[in-house]
Amino acid sequence: MEMGKLFTGDTTKTVPQIALTDKEGSPKRVVLVIEGEIVGDNKGDEISQEHGKDLMLHSLKSLKTAKTVPDEIILIHDGVKLILPENECFPCWKDILDREIVVKACNETLFYLGKIPDDPRIICEDMADLLQSMLTADRIIRL
User: Which of 12, 33, 63, 107 is least enclosed by beta carbons within 10 angstroms?
Assistant: First the structure.
């Protein structure tokens, strides 16, 4: 068995790893939290903002073929805009969801924007439930 992957009935089809392991081999649940549409701080200039958008796009695209993936991706605040059809990152989500990575979006933000996700595999949860997911994670990575 290849490290970090579980094999399904078909040996050619794999699903993403369930959890990362530390040096002792104990399982770890990793959550990626995305709070905005760009990577980094918006310094108020257009060049910085465009670069941050490019970094976000490349980060999400890399999850299509990444060897190690998070167990969950949680989208809060402006990060929720990444799953909307008008966002240039929108096509990335199909590949991420096809890898069976759990994607959760904040209900309150979706309500504020007046939007619902196009893909029914995206789980819409209240912020309180998203907080519980973060509090029970072994590791949180923030973009």
Answer: 12
